[in-house]
Amino acid sequence: MAEYRIATLHFRSIQPYDEQVELLGQTVAIQHLGCDGDLGIMAERIAALDGQVESIALQGVSRRLELSNESVAHAEGERLFSVATQTPVVDGRGIRGALERWAVRLADETEKGIWSRKRVLMVPGLNHAGLAQALRQYTRSVRYADPVIYFGLPGASTIASNEALSRVAGVTLAQLRNASFRRIFPQAGVSSRPRSPGPFRWADVLAGDIAAIRRYAPQKLRHKTVVAACASDEDVADLTARGVSILVTVVPPLGRELAHLDYATFEACLAALRPNPGVPLSENTYLNLMADLDWQPAIRYLQPEEAELHRFAFVIHPLSLKFVHAHPWFRWTRYLPDTLVERVAAYIPPLYISRVKGIQSAATGQRVEGLLLALGGTPRELMRHKPSFVYRRLIVASRMAERWGARLMGLGAFTSVVGDAGITVAQNADIAVTSGNSLTVAATLETAKEAAVKMGHDLAQAHQSTAMVIGATGSIGAVCSRLLAQAIPDIILVAPRPEKLIALKRTIEEETPGANVRISTSPDEFVGEADLIVTTTSAMGQRIIDILQCKPGAVICDIARPPDVTKEEAALRPDVLVIESGEILLPGEPDYGYDIGLPQGVAYACLAETALLAMEGRFEDYTLGRDISVEKVKEIYRLFKKHGLRLSGLRSHDEFLTDEDIARKRAFADELRRDPEKLARLRQQGRTGRAAQAPADEQPLAGKQPRYRRWYGPAAGLAAATATFLLLRRNQR
Fold first, then answer.
1. How many domains, the chain?
2. Per-residue pLDDT, 273
């Protein structure tokens, strides 16, 4: 025999049934009765139950109607609440606001970013002020479908601000205070009024009454999130068929997967369990009881293909104008002056590029999906502007990612080194941010090790191998230097600022006693000693290393973007192995939906780190700032091994190298070591060839200035119009 008994009277017709629930360590028996849409029958049953149960819940009716800051008593509802003289009668109003606010917060803690920057449509706003206010803490885009539901107005008549809602609240309530409850709380089914799909297409989140959502929403609701008090099996089946991605139920599920009790029934349960039945019911009565509840709002993914899918975003940008010219939207820009295109492109807002699909952990089976976003600026343009210029665009990109459901955003290429290397962006984004530099370091060192072995170098052999790091005091260069010093006895550090070099040298000598560390502000003096050179600069494609002076068979691992060693420079020394930083082969069947400049399935290490953290469920700010943690590099390498990521192979200037290619370089290097004169001739030929190319490269663009000026005005106008169009296109997604 249950200790507590309550009754729920449903305004509409239902088959009577009884159930028991466990709440706050007590058993509550609930009797469900229908009233056939007749308020007279409901009043009779209230009178019959008065004094027989601990509390009575009225479902489908309301004592008061609330919209914005306005509140009025419903004439018929008020009379119903005066029938009982012994047993409290409730309609959910006492707990609805607090429960909605608390549930929204808990859902965000459980699924970070579930509400952030989303477009919310209240269906309706009536009696859901708490839900609307809670969601407004995470987004500014909240509209109200009340005009569509209650007055049959077209979708364009949705209320788009709190101020507008306040202005119409009084008029709306005056119209509804004497309206039938059938009109106020519509039943799920086909609407008698024309549907208004526009507001529903606009919204990312539909919040309010699940029956109203089902009645007035169109059939296609792909990728939407629905928030309601509870959901029946029929509700779940209908929303699933329409393509809804996520269903969030606010009322505690009480041992079930989804909440099945409405606000009124749950309030009646709490009213029955209150410690002092003699004290009048108030919000404080319920608050103290709800504070003792150990519960999370139920969050259910309705689409099997999206269940437990972890989402991330990644930001790229063109490394040169050829990437802009190659894009289908911007092919026409090849007919404009390059300087103009490059300048204007930097101002284009972040663009949606594609979705990254098919990535799946080899260890856990965790599926991840990515959103590829792009800034328009080349490295030169990003360097030309203040860091705040780039920050603003990255923050906008993070908000786009949040709306899509990403919980982590990676910074690609030059965006990872601008300013404070992601710290400011992370502080202003509601999702986690990483630069990807930890895995970049790990992949670089692993690739360098593999290349050195294939070229015949025993880097660990004392006094026989030397490593050089150019750009050693940068964020990537510093941690590379520290880790290389643990594996290679002799290391040379090169950077332009002496004070930073001295500090780094001392750090390495403290961490790795016995390491032979030399420092220099220029690579020229020592470049001929190095067996392995890691170059990680922001030199914007300038030649910072004279490859002609390298020792035979040297390995250059070029991390810089644009690269520090061009293809033309590398050709001057066919015995020197120039490789890119380690690219990663992601597990599963990756499909980027866009040509990122790599073979299918292969990703840059910074993108791979973002996907890897998503596989691991590590939605946290990971690699940020100039000081990359050695511990995080080692940790990300362990995760790299755990989830089945692999190096894609050695690449040089966008081409994979075969073992035969490397064997030829190694054989030629051996030949040069045996024949110093041949090495001297090769170096002289290289200097001669370089000198012959210089004048042509440095010739001014004679005769183009007048044409440039003629094109400037119209081209700038066209480019600005294009940027505006793309911005609008983005906002419609």
1. 4
2. 86
